[in-house]
Amino acid sequence: MSPRPTVAEIEVMPREALVGLWPALMGGPVPRGMSLPMLRRFLAVEVQAQAVPGAVVKALTRRLAAAGQERVKTPALRPGGRLLREWNGVTHVVDVTPEGYRWQGATHRSLSAIARAITGAHWSGPRFFGLAGTPQRRAS
Fold first, then answer.
1. Domain membership of residue 99 as a residue range
2. Does the first or last residue of the chain, that is N or C, have fewer Cβ atoms within 10 Å of its Cβ?
């Protein structure tokens, strides 16, 4: 194997070899809990980036700069507002109060807590209730 492996070589390397290669390419230890497929992907991208210096960095820098200019704007909810969401055939009603969000007789501090209680999974509350729209340009 060459001093700098190819993507094809990375695809077949055992985990121990990939972990040994990581510090040389990435400059630090492998992040804890990183899966084998992700380890391969990160190393393959780094090998490709180093093969053509500057090409990947410039493209990535442009994409990161563009992403930094966007954010999701959630509309302000005022007391008296009402949110409706149908989930698995049940319509859930959430009332906005000065204390928080009232759902099924209990007040919650966040919409995410309610979304989690409804679905049993971690959700962004504003997204679950359809409040998180498309990214909008940030006013500079």
1. 82-130
2. C
CA–CA distance, 23 with 32 (Å, rounded to integer) = 14
- Asked if pLDDT for residue 9 goes beyond 90, the answer is yes
- Please report, to the nearest 10 degrees, the dihedral formed by the alpha carbons of residues 102, 108, 113, 117 taken in order: -60
Supply 46's token pair: 């780094």
Contact at 8 Å (CB) between 25 and 50? yes
* CA atoms within 13 Å, Cβ hemisphere of 108: 18
Are 111 and 92 spatial neighbours (Cβ–Cβ below 8 Å)? Answer: no
**Residue 137 covered by a domain:** no
Residue 117 forms part of a structural domain: yes
Q: Measuring CA to CA, how many Å separate 65 from each of 36, 59, 62, 70? A: 30, 10, 5, 9
Closest CA to 77 of 136, 138, 139, 126: 126
Q: Is residue 30 part of a domain?
A: yes
H helices of 28-130, in order, are 36-51, 55-68, 111-119, 125-128
Tally of structural domains, the chain = 2
